[in-house]
Write a structure and sequence with these properties.
The chain has 490 residues and is of the alpha+beta class. It contains twelve helices and 16 strands. It has three domains: 119 residues, 2-Layer Sandwich (Phosphorylase Kinase, domain 1); 234 residues, Orthogonal Bundle (Transferase(Phosphotransferase), domain 1), CATH 1.10.510.10; 53 residues. The strands form five sheets. The chain has a six-stranded antiparallel beta sheet with strand order 1-2-3-4-6-5, with helices on one face. Bound molecules: adenosine-5'-triphosphate (ATP). Its EC number is 2.7.11.1.
Length: 490
């Protein structure tokens, strides 16, 4: 891993505003005239708020309410994009029909429930969603920054189903990562994993046909730095192969603990070059991630497939072979004698559920490594500073934010800064060797030959660091954008 330490110029986040908080008991009426009563706050995004909610009725909204309402100021962009995605892609009957046709019990795409505008002190846009539980990034941290091979295989199968659905409905997600993957809310639904946050979702296949391969440095590096695709690093419109690549990095990180380029997340050109370098030489990527040579075969094959797909610009519009990729993981499970029962090993490492089975919110306490029962200090495990750049899809069925907010080029940028600092100081250095050794031990413990017990140590969860996020919302018009070219290695 080269010790790259280039100076990074950071752009200041664009100005944005958070919505005024809603009062518990406030009633919102959606575009179908259904009324929703707001309960307590359950989350905060970059510049939106989430509340528990129930259909309007007598009494207050309880802690186990089945819905959440996400609100943003009306002239912000991301929620506008998200609602557009949900309306086109995630209507309940669409998802039901797909699952029926594929004989599936679960699909990790949240159903569209409703949306609307609300006039209060400030004009708000809101969306009603099903309520979900804990996110996989927190689970990953609680599990000592490594998931077992069995868990990764079960997750990969579910996520490839989810991506296939999105892709077959003309969209790519473009920001797949643990913090956007939520488990079901109740104990009974914790085998279900939902992909949320469609603020970056992109309609790669509009009615006019698949987008063209066009590099544009001005749009480069959208997404979450460590995971985003080579195409995104070059400013190429997001396509299906990008989601496959991003998922590959996420799975790889879950298995080995840390990606080789996490030493300099602030430098997006470095990340692009590293990813392309390693894609051209998968054995070197595996060596960097698994120094003990214990990379699961299914992961190696997944990466080899991804490399072929991504490094060849003539395969930009290709439909990924979801069956082949899922088959890698189902065969691995079968070969090892593991059942795909959705009973994730990492759940055994998670703090106890509350009385009614809901997952408790996280704390900033130390996290115990379930594999070793060892405590890992928060300092060592602090996430490096990361930010995701978001650009809105340009097809919409909902009324767009007002034009006064639009930038001249009609493009939306949703910029996310993890951690509460926006300083230019370099990211905290990860500890590659320790993480890799831990990951190797965990993989061994879960190898087909061994039958080690599931981790029992109750792990306290750490709270996520505060985030700052900004958006300028506008309409994107790729045809108007100038076409720059970077060396792309294709
Ligand atoms: N349906 C849901 N049920 C429960 N919690 C949710 C749901 N959707 C999102 N959350 C949680 O709310 C928080 C913010 O949600 P989300 O990521 O969608 O917002 P955002 O504005 O896109 O934020 P960011 O992109 O900065 O993460 C996250 O912590 C997420 O885990």
């Amino acid at each position: 891993m080269p010790p790259v330490k280039k100076q990074v110029k950071k752009r200041a986040p664009p100005k944005h505003k958070l919505p005024d908080p809603l009062k518990p008991g406030e009633v919102l009426t959606d575009s179908m005239k259904r009324q929703w009563k707001v309960g307590g706050a359950v989350g905060q995004g970059g510049f939106g708020l989430l509340y528990a909610a129930s259909p309007n009725g007598p009494g207050t909204v309880g802690p186990n309410a089945e819905y959440v309402i996400k609100i943003e100021p009306h002239d912000n962009g991301p929620l506008f994009s998200e609602i557009n995605f949900y309306l086109r892609t995630a209507k309940q009957d669409m998802i039901r029909d797909w699952m029926k046709a594929k004989k599936m019990k679960h699909l990790g795409v949240p159903r569209y429930i409703g949306s609307g505008s609300h006039e209060g002190k400030m004009r708000l846009r809101f969306m009603v969603m099903e309520r979900f539980g804990e996110n996989l990034h927190k689970m990953f941290e609680s599990a000592g920054k490594v998931f077992t091979r069995r868990d990764v295989a079960m997750l990969a199968i579910r996520l490839l189903h989810t991506l296939e659905y999105l892709h077959e409905h003309q969209f790519v997600h473009a920001d797949i990562k643990g913090s956007n993957l939520l488990l079901g809310f109740t104990k009974d639904t914790q085998d279900q994993v939902y992909l949320v946050d469609y603020g970056l979702a992109y309609r790669y296949l509009p009615d006019s046909g698949h987008r063209d391969y066009k590099e544009d440095p001005r749009k480069a590096h959208d997404g979450t730095p460590e995971f985003t695709s080579s195409d995104a690093h070059k400013g190429v419109p997001a396509a299906r192969r990008g989601d496959i690549e991003i998922l590959g990095y996420v799975l790889l990180q879950w298995l080995c603990g840390q990606l080789p380029w996490e030493d300099n997340l602030a430098n997006c050109d470095y990340l692009r070059d590293q990813k392309i370098k390693y894609l051209r030489n998968i054995p070197s990527l595996l060596k960097a991630c698994f120094p003990e040579g214990d990379c699961p075969d299914e992961m190696r094959k997944y990466l080899e497939y991804t490399s072929g797909l991504v490094l060849n610009s003539s395969r930009y519009q290709e439909r990924p072979d979801y069956n082949y990729l899922r088959g890698l993981f189902t065969s691995a499970l079968k070969k090892a004698g593991w059942k795909d029962d959705g009973k994730f090993d990492f759940l055994a490492a998670k703090p106890k559920a509350s009385k009614k089975g809901q997952i408790k919110s996280s704390t900033d306490d130390d996290v115990q490594s379930p594999q070793k029962g060892r405590s890992v200090s928060p300092k060592k495990r602090a996430a490096p500073k990361k930010k995701a750049v978001k650009r809105r899809s340009d097809d919409s069925d909902v009324s767009p934010p007002p034009k006064k907010k639009a930038a001249p080029r009609k493009q939306a940028v949703k910029k996310r800064v993890y951690d509460d600092s926006d300083s230019d100081s370099p990211s905290p250095k990860p500890k590659p060797k320790a993480a890799k050794a831990k990951a190797a031990k965990s993989r061994k413990a879960k190898s087909p030959a061994s039958k080690s017990p599931k981790p029992k140590a109750a792990a306290a969860k750490r709270g996520r660091k505060a985030r700052a996020l900004s958006t300028i919302a506008t309409q994107t018009s790729p045809g108007l954008m100038a076409r720059g070219r970077l060396s792309n290695g294709t």
